[in-house]
UniProtKB/TrEMBL annotation:
This is 3-isopropylmalate dehydrogenase. Belongs to the isocitrate and isopropylmalate dehydrogenases family. LeuB type 1 subfamily. Its EC number is 1.1.1.85. It catalyses: (2R,3S)-3-isopropylmalate + NAD(+) = 4-methyl-2-oxopentanoate + CO2 + NADH. The lineage of its organism: Bacteria, Pseudomonadati, Pseudomonadota, Alphaproteobacteria, Hyphomicrobiales. Pathway: Amino-acid biosynthesis; L-leucine biosynthesis; L-leucine from 3-methyl-2-oxobutanoate: step 3/4. It is found in: Cytoplasm.
Amino acid sequence: MAAYKLLLLPGDGIGPEIMAEAEKLISFLSRAGVASFETEKGLVGGSAYDAHGQAISESDMALAKSADAVLLAAVGGPKWDGVPYEVRPEAGLLRLRKDLALFANLRPAICYPALVDASSLKPDLVDGLDIMIVRELTGGVYFGEPKEITDLGNGQKRGVDTQVYETYEIERIARIAFELARKRSNKVTSSEKANVMKSGLLWREVVTALHAREYSDVQLEHMLADALGMQLVRRPKQFDVIVTDNLFGDLLSDVASMLTGSLGMLPSASLGGEDAATGKRKALYEPCHGSAPDIAGKALANPIAMIGSLVMALRYSFGLIPVADAIDKAIADVLAAGLRTADIAGPNDKPVSTSQMGDAILAELKKTLG
Ligand code: IPM
Ligand code: MG
């Protein structure tokens, strides 16, 4: 039986509650003989700051580097609003992304049939929706230098962030998008602001050239990021794969999440390049949502994005496709049976707790894999 090392980073807020539901599934999969998962736990974000004054410790970074995959829940919260910028909770997440070179962030927005009414859009606009947002994750304005606030000495300050992209960064993320599109509906929408940004102009040029060179079988369109935001809420089913930079990807994936009913539904995979020797990729899996401090500790959180992130790990890191499909089906069945956490509950639903949702998905899965 294959053995895999998983590092679990529950983080802050609702993080530990939703991670607990993923852990139930992981230990079931080990017991059922699907694979043997060796798990370790670490701290990231505010919880790491409280424990050792850093957003992630060196020893947890080392664990992350040696794991086959990292599963992270969420970081941040008002408790750490005043901590120095370098050690704020988000810095732990950004360091993981950067140091593991996880340049490709895959954010699938799928509307489960049972949830068409939970979306903020009309049911016919989202029924059957299946979009993959491919967000560049280690470049752009998140990491570009200079990044600073300088004192101008006249009572004024200047804040600077820098958007930088080089050819290889655009090419490798576009390649991921084209490859994914070939396995889906064969269409890529590349998005930037080429009308106002030099980096956007380069982005469009590089994507166009790569397409002509290697992927002319895939349908490619370019769409300005503002227009794409508008089209996402106007006619979202026109999209298959969307590829965009770090900042636009952050914004557009939050928009897309509401099409699926709730931000609590969207998982993500962050992947590095393929290791030439082993063919493996470094990988981190996390929900797109944040730590929701307002509902932390109240058993209200929706664990589906977290469980969906585990499913993505099974799919992309471990090649356990039938098991991944089985969990996806268990989620769909539980939703079809009417179970709803508060975020996706309609006016007549009686919401279930975080662990009731997790348990129901596990029980459903046992019917297939038990
Ligand atoms: C996300 C989050 C992060 C980001 C935050 C927590 C730093 O919003 O993963 O979308 O901006 O990338
Ligand atoms: Mg975000």
